[in-house]
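Worked problem 6 (solution included).
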Amino acid sequence: MTQLNAGDTVEPHQLQALSGETVPVPDPGHLVHLELRRFAGCPVCNLHLRSVVVRNDELRAAGIREVVVFHSSAEDLHKYQAELPFDVIPDPDRKLYAEFGVEAKPKAVLSPRAWPAIFRGLARSIGATVRGKEHAPPVKPAGGSTGLPGDFLIASDGRVVASKYGEHAYDQWSVDEVLALAKTERGGNGSPAAPATSDASAPSSS
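Solution. The predicted structure is:
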């Protein structure tokens, strides 16, 4: 798969969200933080996305539109992710994963760096299931459990501001890192910054 780096250009997409809304990527009025996550009900994904939910107002205020993709069907996502307050995109055929170079590898869950988040995510999901607030995580998720995450910050002109390819299941940008990238892109004062020339400058949370 070919990976995208800062300075590359994303072709226009009209994505169909779980809500039925058509989501433009790139978005003419916002920076898009495109997250390619794993499967519907993924405990590790849910652990991360809860941190995004609680700070979604900050992201919106910074001009960032959150768009989160899962390699699951709309039916499965309605069961697990329908309440998320941002755009959720079903991609059961992994078309976007192939286009953006986001892979599936056993190290997603076998890397020791992922284990603390896996245990925390499972504990959170099991607790929510016992309290009747969530469905239990799938035992055999459609599309498998070895997907790696990918993060992309995309400018209104389709330019990739920065990208991050996760090395394990919980290797993604934090909200603080996304906000910092957006601030740099806007020149720190709301004006556009010069295009980034290398992905090496993107912050890492691994």
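Discussion: The two ends are 22 Å apart (CA to CA).
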